[in-house]
Amino acid sequence: MGTAQQQDRHVGKKRLLSLLTAAAVTFAASVAFVTGAGPAAADPVEECTATKGAIVAVDFGPFGGDVVRGCDTTPTTGYELLHEGGFTTEGTQHDGDGFICRIGTGSFNSGTQYPTPATEDCVLTPQATAYWSYWIASPGQDTWSYSPLGAMSRKPRAGDVDAWVFGGTDVGGSTGRPTFTPDEVRAGGGATPGPTGNPTGGPTVPAGEIDVPAAARWVSGQLREGTHVVDEGSGTPNDFLTTEAAYALAAANGKSPALDKVAAHLAGRTDAYAYPAGADEPPAAPAAARLALLAAVTEGDPRDFGGHDLLGDLVKNVCPAGPESGSPTPGCTAKGDFHGATYADGQALAVLALLRGGVEPPTGTEERLTQLICQDGSVTSILLSPGEYCDGDPATTGLVALVLDEAGGHGHAVAEMRAYLKKAQLTSGAFPAYNGSPTGSVAATAYAAQALRALGDGDAADAAVAWLSREQLDDGGFGFDEGATDAAMYATAPSVLAGAGTDLVRLVAKASEPTVPPTTPPATGGPTTQPTTRPPGVGPDLKKGIAFLTSPANLHQGRYYRDNEKTGRADFGLTIDGAFALAATGHDDNALRTIVDFLEQGGKDGEGRSLHDWTGVGGKYALGGSMGKAAVLAQAVERDPRDFGGQDLIAGLADAVCEKPSTAPDRSCPAAGAYTYAPSVFAHSLGIIAQLRAGEEKAAKAPIAYLAGLQHGSGAWPSLIPATGDSEVDSTAMAAMTLDLVPGDAHAAAVDKALSWLASQQLADGGFPGASGNSVNSTGLAVQGLSLDAEKYDRQITKALKFLASQQNKDGGFNVAKEGQRGSDIRASAQAVGGATGVSFGTLTRSLEGTTPNPVPSSSTPAIVTPGDSAGGTGGIVDADGPGDGGGSLASTGAQALGLAAAAAVLVLAGWRTVVAARNRREAAAGGER
Q1: Does the pTM exceed 0.70?
Q2: Which of 198, 391, 392, 485 has the highest CB neighbour count under 10 A?
Q3: What is the pLDDT at residue 273?
């Protein structure tokens, strides 16, 4: 490999460097030493091309450095790409090299690894606000995706580019994206990016949530006779504002008699509103689109709304040419316009109406929207003719970005609009009505917030919503501009959608039913849990899934799953996941018995670690989530959690309940009522479930109250503790299962609201969104959550099971997600198999009476290799392949990078998924844990 220093592009004072760092750590404390991995001699950056090798970029901006870039012409894993690219890493004491806690490069500060010991001791999982997150982009992709796999599991392809960014994200990776684009660091690609200035990706403003119910009450109060909005000072119906009111009511209240009345009124106004020139003439595209969207939102038929086929009429009335043809058609500005669209929002809504109706937009209609993007990435509100002066605004940009992102195939255009929106946001969190304005506009901020959340910029969206919350008036409505005192429908309606965390792309008015008491009482033993019975052919093959999970190639000696194949290091959290799947199905009770006996009897992995080296019970770093997870397993198989592996896990949980927040540098307690070192909703929920199943309702009172207080107005829960403001499927499903277990009906309404939100997140193919995209993990958990009310959500559950079946491979295992790297993943498979049964962790029971543990084959433990830690490279606008002050060999760990769980801390304790490789926290396929 080459060692010559490569100095490629240089833009002002900004340099492009390259380094990689995989952050991933878990909490606990055990191993008494920290291992490190040194760099290999990096390949010269120019040797990586679009068809050869892969690039990795590490942003040292938070530490005063630059973005450093490295190349590996023959990468086998993301971990190897990082090291072969010229970077060094250090793991954590608790989890070894596989959890990257620090990264360094000879190109910056003589190879110093960051964060330094002064700010991060790398004993446990780093904080959710300060860890190395891992992002990836394939050839031709100009937006970053949060990696669904850990660095040791991901296999880069030719032309791929990886990025490591220090800062904060949520578990789903919807925040904290790199501030530079993949093309800027890709082999042979664009300008050098500057270092990250604000790693969290949004202005720092006081938190705040919109009072959605109050806003909905204001909207309802504006309806004349409960059916329509009228123009001020007259009795004339304003159909445009009435559609806005309908969208707001759907977002706030779901399907309701009030919404039905409005929809029926608009159906009766279809001729007057959408066909003003006559029923046989082309419709007014914006009006037809709005009514079609209302039909989609209310689960009606846009092909038979008010006596019209709205979708068919939109398709039939697209402009074949503009004025340049010499014979312009009235209502047409350019080829591809919908007849009479006039403005960009009308064009965008017409495209969206067709997409939501399952109709492919006519050729040129989507492209017409891309022609409205100005040089700064903003979108003009007027349907300009080609070549006209272009000046956009945030509101139009937000709407068009949402639509083109949904349409797909416009990645570059969406990236331009996203970049513009982030630049246009004011320090207050607001967005101006037009470029250059110093004050915020409510409507612009609402549309921008919707778009940013959908595009993954959760921090920026949260800041916008927080600003909106401060603009909400006493009557619940919103005025047009900053400081306004009179509410207006045009401002209030989009603010309701932003506050509810939805948008016109995803909005569906789901039917709500009367609140009922919890559907599943606490389980304290008794008959074995039986999975839900469904018709043959619906859902994955669970027997094949179990065969994959118990195969000798995966389940080491039939006792545990490995995080590090070379050293035999166990991933205890993943091992319990597999045991949960076995317990839920009952397809191999002897294999389950073997795992449980190994854990309970103090069995040791290849590094001499046992279960409680992972839980930390009784020690300085007692992990609430991990103790809870181990206790729930004991309860599920009718073992004693008060004496499991020689430890009283229930007493440990009681001791782990925080009385107050801890102060730095101690980060054990985020809040009163939380568990020590349980940095995610998932981890926290497992602790509560264990206490409730043990009959310790009183001891769990504070944790239950804390969990209930984290629920958003939408019904969703955030991923992390302390809350980051995001909304996540996994956490919401887990929290619902937990509160459903609490005796009485105090939390029944919260559970019902959570399930309604879960159902609203389902994608068209039945899957659910997660950190990896259309996620198998998240879909499995959603099935478990929705099964709390299986009768009501039967349709959604059936669709989800079909999606899981589509992701099952011939070997019985499951892909991590519909997108991305193919191949069976143990963590995804465990969650898919267990989740597909619909059995809640709160009631999971499997008797091991009459079972026999499988014989354990003998094996030799491989030697542990601890590589050097020297760095390579020099300063300057350098890539990481330059000469450094020392060499080093690539770490031979083979460990699955358990990703730091949402910022590492995430589930590491609870253990659900241990999150892999510093970054992908939750969906990590490398070995993380929740």
Answers
A1: no
A2: 392
A3: 95
